[in-house]
Amino acid sequence: MSISSVSGANSSGGLLIERFSSAVRGSSTTQTSVAEQATSSTPSLDRITRLIEKLKEQSLNAARTNQVERLDSFQSTIDEALSEIGFLAGVEFSAGGVDQAVVTGAEASQLKDVQVLGLPPGAEASFSGAVVRKSAGASTTVDNIGRLLSGGGSLQLNSGGDSRTIYVNKGGSFGGLVRSINDGGYGVQASEIDNRLRLTSRSTGPSSSLEVISRARRTVRGPEGLQVSGLNAAQIANVAADGLDPNQSITVSGSRDSVATTAELTYQGDAEGRVSGTATFQLNGDQGSQTFSATKGESLEDLAARISAASDQTGVIATVDGDQLRLTSLAKGDDASVSITDISAVQETSVSGVDPDEFSRFDLVSMPADTQVTVSGSITQAAETANLTYRGAVGSEVVETATFTLSGANGSAEVNVTQGESLADVADRINASSSSTGVLARVDGDDLQFESSDVGSAQSVSVTLDRITQDISVTGVDPAKIENFTVESAEHRSSNTLSGSIDQAATKAQLTSNSYGVSSSSATFSLTGELGSETFSVSWLQSLSSLRNDINDATDRTGVVASIESGRLKLTSSEYGSDAIVELDVLSGSFGTSGGDGNGNAQGTDAELTINGNAVTADRNHVAYSDSLGSYSFDLVADQSGALADITIDSTDRDFDIEGGDGDGNASGLDAVATLNGVEYTGTGNRFEETIDSAQLDFEVTQGFVGAINPVTVESKAAEFSISGGDGNGEASGQNGTATIDGVSFSSATDTFEAIVDGESVQIQFASNFTGTFDDLTLTGGDFVANRSAGSQTYRASGRSQYVEINGERLYEQAGRYLAEQNGVQISFALDASASGTIGPITVTGTKSESSDSYLPVLEGQQQLAVQSVLPSLFQLASGGAYSGDAYAPSQTLSVLIEALDQLQGLSGQSSRQGRSLQGFALDVSA
């Protein structure tokens, strides 16, 4: 089967090759101007244009349907295309978008995490600074603590809207008071500094506040205060009874029945002490709530550290015991609580039963929560490549020299082959450009196989013959009128007929003397012809025959031939045509002539013809004629005129046989077909993206496989998140401790109980963790002791917020995080609890495009600058750009792409709609 060529440039690829070939031929002989360099088409420039056109087509389709299928996939296509365009234009492309962000320099010892909130394409930012001030709780110092301990009294603590009172016994120890405050769940931390009591709120930041009212008593009479006997320090740490009269005694007996407890829940990790499933949850305590994320596989220790770091916001700390994480309230008693709410466990998916002989890949994209689907059936048709065969000559050689366009799914390329060239060499050249065509070649015996690089109906192979050695035949030449007929050129596969006539034969220049036989007078004259001039002399009555002989002796110098006709001397040019002349100028004497212009000047004429209705003037008797089908030359037989016989010129192709496909040099691949769960599906090549019984699947069939498949099971279920303890529903409460004093039951959230014994108020502080019956105590009022108020003092303080300086700007914490921005790059970060000093530098960049494997060269010179001027708006389509992500709109994207194409057309000298071509841009840059 012979393939017919297409006249003119191929719209998909021929124009590229023609322009390239033309540029190559001209480069060796022509010094192009700057503007010409900028507007010369190159394969790299055409590749850029084709990439933008492809994006335009996809965006146009989206604009028509007002939707984009798989927007993430389309964005990936945009980024890949812009990456290649950036490479060809000599610009390093860096995609934006938070998913593309690359963060370096974040020290784990300083930062808990860094999140990128915004990243434009091509943007880069660096954030550095320092922790200038740490957040702190409200803190104050009680100066009259010595008076409190010597005479007794109380401390009223007002913190975070809560008010609690601590009673201080006369003669108590400083250390005992500090321990009592720290263990009592008062929301403050106590310490001793220079014999003063330092109190600091456990909550931090500007919202924390603390008010302390210190009320001291003083003894005004009597040397002794309360007398206590029977005190067992292992049971009771302190006891007070402020209302006893002097020498009044009471006996205190009873037991501590239970210790106040914290609230506690337990999270069960895996056997290695790691988080068993990814989930988010809200942890609630008596001081507030906080949301945490747990990632499958992270250590329980890391999760515990994050929870404990936020204990001032929740009132809950976390500890690890083997494979369990314990969540414990800081406070004790009935008011202590811990609960887990708003658990959002991710759905963990699994795929089982996949046979690699049947499927090269099998992915579950999505399916409803807590469902299971089993896929069974068969692959009924394997995907195939597109194939064509070129029939070569014996010896695996090219049959005839030819040029053809080879096209595939990726584009087209022009291929030149030479008669006798090995098919292996041709295959190597084709395979070198397979990335731009999508076609591979291999030698099969004496044939060359063209095969698409992938399988499926989207794959194609097309061979279009552009040029091949022609056989030329000429018929109808009349030798009586035409000789030396030559075909200078002929259009491929054409037939042309030349018809016409010789309207006027070519003539010679001619003069005739007026004398007969002999010269009638003496004369000297100059004789000039096409070749030059000579001077001759003639005497009176000299014979014209002798003059003829003299003139002919000089013919090779003049181009004039003399003869005697009817007794007169005839002077004739040796050649025909308008360039043939005879001129006789008398220098002295007299020598008359007739003919020519009557003044001794004669000129020949060229032949005149009509060919196919067109007037043609010969060069003497030589004719050159061209029309749309060819160019021809021939010589007319001298002195012939009249009608010419029709001359037919036929141009036919030599052998170029392509087999396969549709018989016209086109072939397409086949998609795989499967029947799964009773439904027939057609893939894209070997790939299937289908929803089968509520499961959205994406899988690829192993190339060439056909037959029944092993059943595949896909499942989605919530990640494991097991909480035990409390009420069994993720909620736990603490319990007050209980004590029986003087037969009456009392409860307390601390180690201190207030009881009424014999009508008197008694405060008992038990030793930590003691339970059981305590030894009887005898309390006796002091002799002549009188206590009076020594006045009160109030101390107030507020917390302070933490702030950092980043890139010279002061940033304050907002909900535990800091926000920073540079060059359009926005980040959010949280500091580690122990962070101090220098932060960063933290560098944020987009994902850099890798070195392109394109075989095309990077643009250079003014052309590169011109193309780069188009890129800023085009790059806004990339991930993170102004027209990407949630801001994506098909119409806006289409507008940007059309604008880019409009400007690139200026590289061929066309003006853009803005009235300025890129040729003009190149000239501006050059200037």
TrEMBL record:
Going by the entry's taxonomy, the superkingdom of the source organism is recorded as: Bacteria
Keywords recorded for this protein, A-Z: Bacterial flagellum, Cell projection, Cilium, Flagellum
Q: What is its main location?
A: other
Name a Pfam family for this protein: Flagellin_IN
**What InterPro entries does the record point to?**
Flagellin_hook_IN_motif (IPR010810), FliD (IPR040026)
Location within or outside the cell: Bacterial flagellum
Entry protein name: Flagellin hook IN motif-containing protein
Q: Which organism is it from?
A: Neorhodopirellula lusitana
- Which lineage? Bacteria, Pseudomonadati, Planctomycetota, Planctomycetia, Pirellulales
